[in-house]
Amino acid sequence: MIRMKRIGPVLFAVGLLGALAACTDAVPLDTRPQGEIDSDPFADHSKRPTIFGEGGLDLFGSGSGNNEGGALGVNSFLWRATLDTIRDMPLNSADPFGGVLIYDWFSAPEAPNERVKANVYILGRSLRADGIRVAVFRQVLGPDSVWRDAAVPQSVNIKIEDAILTKARQIRNQVIIQNNS
């Protein structure tokens, strides 16, 4: 009886997989008659429907003049500008649909007893000054070889936000120029 309790679910799973495999009516493309292949609206893979909608994933916008800049969950110009602006710090985590970039601790060679990290939050799909927030954290190595939190002036966060916004506008302008030429 104990063996049946263990074997029963396994047999059920094997039977279910076999039944699902038998349900498919897919025919490999190369075995269909030529006329049927020609009439397939999805023979051209670029016309297949995708989870990103018609036209697929457009990271840098279509040049239509809107400020959205692509099919990401957030403004792709701000996303790309953030990656370009904070390129020296190691990227720990990135969520392009939620708009969160988390950078890991970084120590500059000229200041080995100090390290910084940053979190960047892209808040929407529009290229606006209030569409991005940066949080910088700083630690200093104490005499006991323990990292201790240190203050970061608010002006540092604002300067990084301004640099990212400036770079995002430059990227947007380049895309518009390329699409118009």
Order of strands across the biggest sheet?
Answer: 1-2-3-4-5
Please give the radius of gyration in angstroms.
26 Å
Number of strands: 5
Helix residue percentage: 25-40%
Largest sheet data: 5 strands, antiparallel
Mean pLDDT: 77
Give the termini separation: 77 Å
Oligomer state equals single chain
**What overall form do the CA principal axes indicate?**
globular
CATH topology of the domain at 76-180: Alpha-D-Glucose-1,6-Bisphosphate, Chain A, domain 4
- Total of helices: 4
* The level-1 CATH class of the domain at 76-180: Alpha Beta
Please identify the structural class as seen in this structure: alpha+beta
Q: What low-confidence regions span 5 or more consecutive residues with pLDDT below 50? A: 23-30, 60-66
The CATH architecture of the domain at 76-180 is 2-Layer Sandwich
Strand content: 15-25%
Walk me through what this model shows.
There is one protein chain. By secondary structure, this protein is α+β, with helices and mostly antiparallel strands. The chain has a domain at 76-180: Alpha-D-Glucose-1,6-Bisphosphate, Chain A, domain 4. It is built from 4 helices and 5 strands. It has helices at residues 2-22, 34-38, 76-85, 154-180; strands spanning 91-95, 100-103, 114-122, 132-141, 147-150. β1 and β2 (100-103) form a beta hairpin.
